[in-house]
Write a structure and sequence with these properties.
InterPro entries: Gln-synt_C, Gln_synt_N, Gln_synth/guanido_kin_cat_dom, Gln_synth_cat_dom, Gln_synth_gly_rich_site, GS_Type-3, GSIII_N. Helices cover 53% and strands 12% of the residues. The protein is built from 26 helices and 17 strands. The strands form 3 sheets. Strands 9, 10, 11, 12, 13, 14, 15, 16 and 17 form a 9-stranded mixed β-sheet that branches. Strands 1, 2, 5, 6, 7 and 8 form a 6-stranded mixed β-sheet that branches.
Length: 731
Amino acid sequence: MSTLRFKALETLPFKDFRKDNSVEIPAKLSELFCKNVFSEETMREYLTKEAFSSIMDAIKKGTKIQRHIADQVAVAMKDWAMSKGVTHYTHWFQPLTGTTAEKHDSFFTPIEGGRAIERFSGNMLIQQEPDASSFPNGGIRNTFEARGYTAWDPTSPAFIMGTTLCIPSIFISYTGETLDYKAPLLRALSAVDEAATNVMQYFDKNVTKVTPTLGWEQEYFLVDSALYQSRPDLVLTGKTLLGHSPAKGQQLDDHYFGSIPTRVMNFMKELEIECMKLGIPATTRHNEVAPNQFELAPMFEEVNVAVDHNSLLMDIMARVAHKHHFHILFHEKPFAGVNGSGKHNNWSLATDTGENLLSPGKNPKKNLQFLTFFVNTIKAVHEYADLLRASIASASNDHRLGANEAPPAIISVFIGSQLFSVLEELEKVTNGKLSPEEKTELKLNVVGKIPEILLDNTDRNRTSPFAFTGNKFEIRAVGSSANCAESMTVMNTIAAKQLNDFKKEVDTLIEGGLKKDEAIFNVLREYIKQSKSIMFEGDGYSDDWAKEAKKRGLNNLKTTPEALKQEMDKKFLDLYEEMGIFNHREVEARNEIKLEKYSTVIDIEARVLSDIARNHIIPSALNYQNRLIENVKGLKDIFGDKDFKPLAKEQMSLITDISENVSKIKLGVEGLIKAREAAKSVSNSQKQAEDYCNKVKPLFDGIREASDALEMMVDDELWPMTKYREMLFTK
């Protein structure tokens, strides 16, 4: 293996690194936008008026598409796709593996007389039957019940990848349970649309639809492909399991927003071209904090489309990176000692009249509308903080949360001191009817000043997992490798539930004799009081906050097993069922899948670490030790028994250190194997995950420490492994 790693490095000319793989960009990227998307403009060109109207009603109003319309759409899609050289189609979906999936079928159909035609019908468009037997199901079905169905999602546009027409779809089991990320997300989006639209009738009766929006920020690392292949731990686990730190990492903060390296710029150029063709509105690119870490961010989009675009982007990034001799890392913490990668989810609500409901207006009425959605969002997070925490839980994200670049596992809300003082003023509102003086004070001196407050005083708190940043809430705790759909399903579900509750309470007060504004102020006042414990403006990394959070009753769920245990709380199960997102069986199945994935990831890491330590580190260390022993023997032969000892003092010390560390690794690996086997024998998924967390993971540290000590000694033997961060830097 060591020889293979050195051979891999021989492919890299270290004097001038890779040759520039230059990319030419068209004069206007906008000319490429949606070139490979069955967009609204394309549909106008290819569809009949009847079919186009039906599709737009399905997108905007959620109406069903009739079978004969589906036939018309299918023919139009095929004609458009074939005009671009497409030969196959696939239902593109997002199973619970965390990646995307597709099964390609040809348009080719034999007919009588030894002839053939290209055929694509409404039935083919609407539904496919991929084999579901190998996808995670959490015990929903038996192994022999392999059938699963994919169903077309007309609210997300079809697109072309290579010579294949990709049709965004949901994925369900033969018995009807959801087996993907998209189906529950669509339900949550529908729920929050209905709830928010109902609340908006207090402020603007012209609003008939509210659409949640999402702007994600994708962080990632780029590693030269030859250097990536030299690291078996990177190849097999996506992260470096061992290796000493370089002299220079990110201490000087000179990479953040620095000049983008030429090789990386060429990668980014080609990536942006592909994004434009597929309708992904990528607008931002820059160096991130860690060496070789970068970020891409698009403009805000409707949540369902934004989630699809992020999943599609991650696939495109890997393909484009390969062409530029890079490998892309989405692991949340691929290297110890430098920042990890997140995927900040910026969430808001927009009306069909063009308003952002989390942006203040120019008058008190619009600001009361803003406060309504602002306070309800905070209340929703307060009530369901642990569910939001569970939605971002994974083995890889556990390494990142609470480090210098990511918020802690304690869910809190940051809104800024100025807005916090506004809420404190609202908290003083008189119970019941307001006096004329109070109404004037609220509307002019409290609510009326919100626009100027937000203009100059909004800020970001990097230590907050849920921060208000001017006209949106930023969920900073989502991991780089995660599917945005999971956190977005939770966010929109809890927002919908909270807005439904708010509407009921306000209507009750109005029926009791209060005017509309008075009723709204009264309910918001109570919500502010009830939610104050989750609002925090300080340093989320501090030990003092952990102690304070405990006093406030906020959970600090540091590990995935802890977080996923909370997910099965009856309160959350009932929430999902009430809102029509999941039934109890589906939640239990998904919880089982996540626990099993957690245990499997830790198990793989344990096995890889054991293999590298035994098969690479120890043999290299013993070879070096043998050379030291020969050196000591030579000194003894030359200088004699008495005089050689002072001269061989350092060598003798190294020989002893090597033996001690080899022994530590051997004992650590044996303990790790026993702990793994004990954990694997547990039938309860929650208990198994806890055992992997509490018994298997702690044994990593002893093996790593001894291995790192040996690596420092045998640098020349293992240099592709030991100097991993210097070698991974891009120039």
